[in-house]
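To: structure subgroup
Subject: Chain for Friday's discussion

All,

I'm putting the inputs and outputs inline so they're searchable in the archive.
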Amino acid sequence: MHCSANLGPEGEAALFFGLSGTGKTTLSTDPNRPLIGDDEHGWSRDGVFNLEGGCYAKTINLSQTAEPEIHAATQRFGTVLENVVLDDASVPTFTDVSRTENTRAAYPLTALPSIAKGGTGKTPKTVVFLTADAFGVLPPLAKLTPEQAVYHFLSGYTAKVAGTERGVTEPQATFSACFGAPFMPLHPSVYGEMLAERLRDSGAQAWLLNTGWTGGGYGVGKRIDIASTRRLLTAALDGSLDSAEFRTDPLFAFAVPAAVPGIEPRLLDPRQTWADGDAYDAQAIKLVDLFRKNFAKFGPDADAGAGPQMMMAAE
């Protein structure tokens, strides 16, 4: 699995699927939840295990305040910095994008203060799909049914922005099946069925966590701040949303919490954050269409009713 993983208080794992720039490393590195691994895991009937043994973190605008564990790891001997500009005193300048925004740090798991013993964990209770929606359409957090989880797993959506890859100068929707299509030797549907089986057997709850833009698309709105994303993630992980009130999203039909502790309610409904509701609607219809066109490659009945409902488009 192209995902990161960490441990809850009872040793149960949480999985974080996502493409580059969506926050896998940042969000799974948590001093209160020992890290199993940053990338590449297996999920057997006995639990989760890491295959990689190290971390490969994006360092663009890396802050000691927002990401203290990762920042500390970049300061130790043995960490490899990639594309990072050094100042005259050979100190990394993480805000310097004169060469590229795709700056990285590679370091062993042992560079972190809280890691899982043996790189293993018990059966996951939570599966999180991360996306950085640069179109400003998706809510920051949504609860998924098992069928919706498989749909979004097979979709593997995020938006590439400047700095993710060479030549990308404006937001581009990208879909990578299983959040790692180049690594999958079999047809994506095989892995979708495997995920469905694991979700049924474990009873794990799946969530879609959007770390992208709010109040407008890239260049107009702003990216959801890390502190808010961490509060949303914590609420999904610690069970505080188990009895929460949810609304049904009119586009994708997944469940969106009406309130989350420490989060402004307006943020939970992306349309309310836009100055122009009609502009949001137009952008939303475009994104829904991209999802549907991408999923068409799996066949007309593949989504099993778990994909976008096109309610706004029909209006």
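Points worth raising on Friday:
The chain has a mean pLDDT of 92.
Residues 150 and 194 are 10 Å apart (CA to CA).

D.
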